[in-house]
Specification:
Distance between the termini: 29 Å
Order of helices and strands: EEHHHHHHHHH
Largest sheet: 2 strands, antiparallel
CATH superfamily of the largest domain: RNA polymerase sigma factor, region 2, helix turn helix motif
CATH architecture of the largest domain: Orthogonal Bundle
Strand order of the largest sheet: 1-2
Number of strands: 2
Length: 224
Amino acid sequence: MGSVGVILPWEHRIPSVAREGISRVEPSERASQANPVGVNPEDAALAAACRAGDLCAYERLYRLQGARMRNLARNLLGTQSDAEDAVQETFLKVQRSIATFRGQSSLVSWIFRILVNTCHDVRRSRMRRKEIVAEEREEGATPAEPRAPEAHPTLKLALERAIGQLTHHQRDVFLLYEVEGFRHGEIAEMLEISETASKNTLFQAKKNLRQMLEAPRSSQAGGA
């Protein structure tokens, strides 16, 4: 599986990959925007206001979570324009289905679950379009000259490519936990899996990333 062009904001990069593990990223917005698992009174009040059609409540929700949502969507989709479209579509879905929100999970977890599913829909649609274009160009097309691979990719670029080779499930859990700072309980609610499954998936994602990132370094060391 090749790279899908995942983009990590440079301020959220993982600065080093040690053999004993990948350190958790600490984005600047985590402290102010992290939400505990469960529903707190403010969360319930905001959900009630949204159900009542209060536009100010939706504006507040966007101010609180919009930047975080765009960042996750950009990492999942690879482009800012697709991320903006996905966030906009997510808020439209939230408005259409807010009446179905029963408060069994936090409002934020519920919204991010919709966002992740929306991003998956965009990716599937993109892949279908690529398949159609490839079929149309298959006959009589002149193959393009392959580009020479970069000799010394930066760690950031190598990490982006490696994340792009994870499974969708592993990439979702890794980005939600390591970049966005969600807890495993919140991720479990968003992806509708158990907390143990979230932890195991993150462990496997880190293991795969270490293997992918250490292989090029070993090759370079052997050729030195």
